[in-house]
Amino acid sequence: MAGIVKSGQSVTCVFVTSNPTTGAAVNADSLPTGLIYVNGTVNAASVTVTNITTGVYKAAVTLPSLSAGDVVDLRISATVSTIAGEGAVWSATADTKRVSDLADFAGGAVASVSGAVGSVTGAVGSVTGNVGGNVTGSVGSVASGGITSGSFAAGAINAAAIATDAIDADALAADAVARQVFVLAVPRPPQLPREGAGHLHVEPDGAALRQHQAQSLGFDNLTR
Asked: In whole angstroms, what is the distance from residue 34 CA to residue 9 CA?
């Protein structure tokens, strides 16, 4: 077995022809031919055979469309010293991706993840690209201090970034916004002196108030 292959992969393998009696390497009477088998059935993929040196050949083929688990074989037919022979010179198992197609998680990029990611136990250093889609699920929690003022660039959140009615009463937990009570201090009106103090005349049109104001200025009596 030659390991794992995938659809469209170019494969080249080397095989030899030898004298049936002595075993010495000799060229075949004519150029050998090759066939590709997928799961035991001949495939139409074209196999090109080239003579490298005496008794040494290479067979090259571009693999057809394969499914994971398919078994691929290369069979060579050759005639040496008028004696015909054949055999499988190469075999492999197909998969949709080879190990080398997978990203190196120590430093490579992951092109996409189509399924769900159960959990990430390590830290995510940074996200330099954009998050194209929406977050339709919930974020369980953010540790204390996880989001600070330094987490947001200047102007990152403005009126245009928040949809109309995106934040309403239902979006705020009870007591999420602390209430404050403001006491408005209203000055008390001046207390008028009792009748008889400073000969106060209680008359219409604010005369009593004017009398009080006069006393505050040092005048004892004020009459009209």
From this structure: 17
Q: Are 25 and 56 in contact (CB under 8 A)?
A: yes
- State both tokens at 21: 């009696």
Helix (H) or strand (E) holding 73: strand 71-80
Instruction: Give the E-state strand segments of 175-216 in sequence order.
Output: none
Cross-strand bridge partners of residue 60: 12, 48
Pairing mode, strands 47-53 and 56-62: antiparallel
Rounded to whole angstroms, what are the CA distances from 116 to 99, 113, 120, 136, 142?
21, 8, 11, 13, 21
Distance in angstroms (rounded) separating the CA atoms of residues 14 and 221: 132
Tens-level pLDDT at each residue, the chain (224 residues) = 568 999 999 999 999 999 999 999 999 999 999 999 999 999 999 999 999 999 999 999 999 999 999 999 999 999 999 999 999 999 999 998 877 776 655 555 666 776 677 777 777 767 666 666 666 677 777 777 778 877 777 777 887 778 787 777 777 777 766 666 666 666 666 665 555 555 555 555 566 666 666 666 565 555 55
The residues, ordered by sequence, that sit 6+ positions from 207 with a Cβ below 8 Å of its Cβ are 201, 224
Output the furthest CA–CA distance in the chain (Å, rounded).
Answer: 154
Question: Is the separation of the CB atoms in 87 and 42 below 8 Å?
Answer: no
